[in-house]
Amino acid sequence: MSNERRLGRLTSLLRRRGIILPSYEIYGGVSGLIDYGPVGARIKRRVIDVWIDHWTSVGNVVEVDSPTITPEPVLVASGHVDEFNDHMSECGACGAVFRSDHLLEGLNPNPNSLEASDLDDKIADSAITCPSCGGFEWKGASPMNLMFPTRIGAKRGGRMAYMRPETAQGMFMLYPALFRHFRQRLPFGAIQTGKAYRNEISPRQGMIRLREFNMAELEYFIDPDELPNPDLGRWDSSVSLLPDPEGPHAGEHSMTFGEALGSGIVKHPTVAWFLALTWDFLVDVGVDPERIRFRQHASTEMAHYASDCWDCELNGEHGWVEAVGIANRTCHDLLSHQEHSGSKLLRGWRQFDSPRTETMEVLTPNGAVIGPTFKGDASAVADALSELTDVPDSLPFILTLADGTNVEVTEEMVTRRVEKVTVHGEYFTPHVIEPAFGIDRIIWHILDHSYSETEKEGKGYTILSLKQDVAPFDVVILPLFDKDGMGELARQISSRVSSMPGIHGDLDVSRSIGRRYARADEIGVPWAITVDHASLEDGTVTVRRRDDQTQVRAEVESLLSHLSSGTIGELF
User: Fold this and answer.
1) Fold observed for domain 85-145
2) CA angle, 423 as apex, 420 and 429 as ends, to 5°?
3) Where does 37-66+165-331+434-439 sit in CATH, by number?
């Protein structure tokens, strides 16, 4: 079957079975928006649940939930207001707008790193035609910020804000609470799942490039002087790695994660660990391991906040597509938010092995002056003076308090002294390793990789071979006929299945048994229980395995016990 035909049939199946559908279709639809139908929403929920369980099982990772609306100052500090842009090119003939780098795909190895003038030159040199009208008249490429602006509050009194382009910034804002939660001990991490928004210039490829999409991110805070060094020995499978094409390891490599770290292809041990854990998650939810690779960003395409970044790319009907980004964000985010907010709460504390005696210059507050001058803020000023690590050479100077307030400290307010002090530790800005998952892209590839068609009775027969953990239902209960007591027994079994923790069952009584088997196979239900005439006599039912359609008879009690314990496969 050709790729185009297979893609069309898969897309048709997803719509027909209520998995993935276009949004607002009766009004013509909106490019870059999709709906998860009743079956697709269950698949999405189960994928997210597996993701959450996967990362929280690490032990020092907790889940948080922050708002999707983000005040502008947060995104100014993060760099998104200035840096979060794509270049767009407008056709002078028909007015259609496209992402400039998309027009050069296949003609340049890294078009999204080019400046506007270079994009214009290459579009002209390559004689790119407008995909809408076939014209050659292109206006100059110009940057467009991808965030959706909004306002918090009413009319003129409202604050400028944006719909979040990622979940990460909310987790950086929660760092002080996380630091307290983990009793001031690094490393630790926070995960968050939810919606993010990017006003894509030209959305395409269905679920691959959306304007509203589902993200799942982990921010892992570490001490850069005491790096976590996990054992990579348990990952013994070779994976495909594509290091920086401009670096010393250029070319495709097949090796284990431990070998990649040992050879210097992956330089940071925590990054290597997250590459391995990402691999585990993707394989666990049903992505074909033969269609996974890790590609390192070239220095010219690196995000402004990252010192290193690896994309986990999945191969499917749309070619190789980035589904996960694992970035070493260093201290960029926390340091930037410290500088913009003036907060001193975005730091870590590193305890020395033994106390140190140091000679240092200090400014001792003069309470007789500071008290009347600052009144209720006097203690905050004294605390801020005691925490100064870089005493200014001259006075007056501006002192930033813990809440971000700036005050002027004059010469009569303090006494300059040189003291010997005992230092037990030091403050530092933690570094962050971030795996960021595009849930919609992962779900697309799960569906793509699990979709197959075979011939059955002269007709095409479709199966989604979903892993049980992400299938919409673990089992479907089918009475042969909805009469003569078979329907009643099927409902009793369905009720017992529904009461099992973590098990999801479906009862289907509509149309012929063959049609119902086919429906279950098309949405990926791994097991089917059929209640027939014999079930009423001897208490046995037929259990059918989706992937090879093998059937066995089993007693109802034995079946339910195996289903509850996750050992139903032992019946075969």
Assistant:
1) Herpes Virus-1 (3.30.40)
2) 130
3) 3.30.930.10
For the residues of 385-435, what is the DSSP string, one character each? HHT-SS--SSSSEEEE-TTS-EEEE-GGGEEEEEEEEEEEEEEEPPEEEEE
Confidence of residue 307 (pLDDT cuts 50, 70, 90): confident
Pairing status of strand 149-152 against strand 159-163 = antiparallel
pLDDT digits (tens, 9 = 90+) for 26-64: 999 999 999 999 999 999 999 999 999 999 999 999 999
| Alpha-carbon span 513 to 75, nearest angstrom | 56
**Beta pairing, strands 431-438 & 414-428:** unpaired
Report CA 288 to chain centroid distance, whole Å.
19
Every domain of the chain and the residues it spans: 37-66+165-331+434-439, 85-145, 352-425, 473-571
Q: What angle do CA 392, 394, 395 make, to 5 degrees?
A: 100
Confidence of residue 1 (pLDDT cuts 50, 70, 90): low
d(CA 322, CA 215): 13
For residues 365 and 384, give the distance between their C-alpha atoms in angstroms, rounded to a whole number: 10
pLDDT digits (tens, 9 = 90+) for 194-233: 999 999 988 888 899 999 999 999 999 999 999 888 899 9
| Superfamily holding 473-571 | Anticodon-binding domain (3.40.50.800)
Closest-CA residue to 440 (of 191, 163, 146, 212)? 212
Amino acid at 325: G
Residue with tokens 């006003």: 199
Look at residues 291, 302, 290, 296 and name the one whose alpha carbon lies nearest to residue 241: 296
Write down the residue that tokens 């992962």 correspond to.
442
Burial 267-281 (b: 16+ CB within 10 A, else e): ebbbbbbbbbbbbeb
Confidence of residue 70 (pLDDT cuts 50, 70, 90): very high
Residues 6 or more apart in contact with residue 94 via CB below 8 angstroms = 130, 132, 133, 135
Residues 152 and 383: their CA atoms lie apart, in Å, by: 34
Task: Give me 557's structure tokens.
Answer: 């009690």
* Residues 417, 361 contacting (CB under 8 angstroms): yes
**How far is it, in rounded angstroms, from Cα 274 to Cα 7?**
32
Contacts of residue 67, Cβ cutoff 8 Å, sequence gap at least 6: 164, 170
pLDDT digits (tens, 9 = 90+) for 330-380: 999 999 999 999 888 999 999 998 999 888 888 999 999 999 999 989 999
**pLDDT tens digits, one per residue of 445-463:** 999 999 998 877 667 789 9
